[in-house]
Specification:
Layout lengths: L11 H10 L3 E5 L2 E4 L11 E3 L11 H16 L9 H8 L2 H16 L20 H9 L2 H6 L9 E5 L5 H9 L10 E7 L4 E6 L6 E4 L3 E3 L3 H8 L8 E13 L11 E3 L9 E3 L14 E11 L6 H14 L8 E9 L4 E2 L4 H12 L4 E3 L2 H4 L7 H17 L16
Parallel strand pairs: 2-10, 8-15
Antiparallel strand pairs: 1-4, 2-3, 5-6, 6-7, 9-12, 9-13, 9-14, 10-11, 11-12
């Protein structure tokens, strides 16, 4: 549900676990672009290489000159002021033209809140800066090479994907290596009794409530739900969005310009997706890939947006047609799914709020980790969540401090 590629971010333990679990992995080179049609005043698609901020030399002349002047000013007058918001961070590093033409509309689509309401603490390996030497080398390239360039930036320039079974194959096969009775699928925890150290749960939507004891509870359900249920502190002021996944199956041949692309980004508010990916290029799972190909759209909305999955699905199909990625008559199947928790949003208040939760949970031997259990976007991909689990086990059993996940609490807390 979502792109879900895996790539090495310097976690050898994770890389080894994946390799030992999945026998047949495809290795792919990323080839992605950004649709900057709005900047060019066009309705259709106008691709520039990823990341968009590296494509300044390809921007329309006026925007290009503005960007260059704003960047020059930043290189010459370096400021020590620490940005408070993500908007401040972009303005400090790039200037208003790139902010207004790319970051603001794109971030609004993926995060569903304004850049001025987000903290910049997550940007680290997620948003490329543009050092002066890099900009100079880009400006020296000829346009033809530039249009085709992948700037090789970021940890996912190369990635892997299971040949069979989708990304779920990794986790299904990993679970199969472990004792079966460690897992209890299709069960829902309905309450946590932290005094008696037990949880109540139901199985298969059955009304009968069962109980299970614990010594240590590791929670990977959303931490806001855990706090609301246990009422161990006041509700958390944290924000998430939801993501609609829309999958479209199509008859071959694939649209020609998509044949070499792995995924595309869309800041354009006229289409509902912020990203689309061509999963039929990643693996062998597309049913009868001698006849069909597929495209998957990810569309983010505020958690309480009343739009329905059907409406988003229709908009996504129209958007794909508008962007010349598909034609209606080639569609053979449509799939959609709503993920009520899509992205844990890095708001300004987030770290204090999450620390407030850990401060009441950890003394009771409840540890909340993972994408929504830990709520730190910058550490919420599959590799991060896997390593969070390993490091927490190492901390609990071997007293080795966690390195990846920061609770915000003092390290030694007895
Ligand atoms: C749209 C999207 C795109 C993504 N793309 C990528 C990518 O390209 N690469 C990448 O590495 N990662 C990606 N991720 C992140 C990846 O999904 C997460 O890293 C991974 O799923 C996190 O695992 P987790 O165990 O923390 O949480 P989850 O996978 O969310 O697992 C938590 C589990 O808890 C269960 N649960 C919740 N409440 C209860 C309850 N009361 N009782 C019992 N169970 C409960 C949920 O059903 C869920 O199964 C993406 C995520 C999304 C949403």
């Amino acid at each position: 549900m979502g792109v879900h590629i895996t790539f090495s971010q310097n976690f050898p333990y994770y890389d080894k676990a994946i390799r030992e679990t999945v026998q047949e992995l495809n290795s792919l080179q990323r080839n992605c672009s950004v649709d900057m049609n709005c900047m060019f005043g066009e309705n259709g698609i106008h691709l520039v290489p990823y990341p968009a901020q590296f494509a300044v030399p390809l921007f329309p002349e006026k925007d290009k000159q503005n960007c260059l002047a704003e960047l020059k000013e930043r290189y010459e007058n370096k400021s020590d002021v620490r940005p408070v918001t993500f908007e401040d961070w972009v303005l400090k590093n790039f200037g208003p033209t790139i902010h207004d033409s790319f970051f603001k509309p794109y971030m609004r689509k993926i995060w569903t809140i304004e850049t001025s309401k987000m903290t910049p603490v997550w940007v680290g390996s997620r948003v490329a800066k543009l050092p002066q030497e890099k900009l100079e080398s880009l400006c020296a390239m000829n346009k033809e090479d530039l249009v085709k360039a992948d700037f090789g930036w970021g940890p996912n320039a190369y990635f892997t994907y299971p040949k069979y079974g989708g990304i779920g194959a990794v986790w299904r096969q990993m679970a199969e290596k472990l004792p079966e009775n460690w897992f209890k699928y299709n069960s829902k925890v309905v309450s946590v009794n932290y005094h008696s150290k037990s949880i109540n749960f139901i199985e298969n939507n059955n009304a009968i409530i069962k109980t299970m004891d614990y010594d240590i509870l590791i929670n990977t359900a959303p931490i806001d739900k855990l706090i609301n249920e246990t009422k161990l502190c006041l509700p958390l002021n944290i924000v998430h969005n939801k993501v609609f996944i829309v999958g479209v199956g199509l008859e071959l041949p694939m649209t020609e310009f998509c044949e070499t692309i792995t995924w595309l980004y869309f800041p354009d508010p006229a289409v509902p997706f912020y990203r689309i990916s061509f999963h039929s290029r990643y693996d062998e799972v597309t049913p009868d890939n001698t006849k069909y190909w597929s495209v998957m759209c990810e569309c983010a909305r505020e958690a309480d947006d009343p739009i329905t999955e059907e409406e988003i699905r229709d908009q996504a199909v129209e958007g794909l047609i508008l962007k010349s990625i598909i034609t209606r008559e080639k569609i053979v199947s449509l799939y959609s799914k709503t993920l009520n928790y899509g992205y844990p949003i890095p708001t300004i208040e987030r770290d204090n709020e999450i620390a407030r939760a850990h401060a009441v949970l950890e003394p009771l031997n409840i540890y909340s980790r993972g994408r929504f259990g830990g709520w730190k976007y910058e550490a919420s991909n599959q590799d991060h969540c896997f390593i969070q689990g390993k490091e927490l086990a190492d901390r609990l059993f071997l007293d080795i401090p966690e390195k990846l996940y920061k609770t915000g609490l003092p390290e030694k807390r007895g």
